[in-house]
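Annual report, structural modelling task.

Input specification for the zinc ion complex:
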Amino acid sequence: MRTTPYRDVTRAKCGRCGERGEYEWSGVCAERRGKIIYHALCSACDREANEMLLKWFYGVGKATEIMRGYE
Ligand SMILES: [Zn+2]
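The model returned the following structure:
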């Protein structure tokens, strides 16, 4: 697991599906154990992760509204 940020995340592969990385995600608290863990995500997986968390946090209506403005 990576504990330092990517210098250029587009040169890394998405940690979930292997596509070209586009966004850096600093993981979730449970996997940190005192350190921040960095992951590369492609744009499709980044979008999916955002949508999933927004739905869980705000509910479907508000999540859909927020995702509309997210590219
Ligand atoms: Zn991906």
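The chain has one domain: 9-68.
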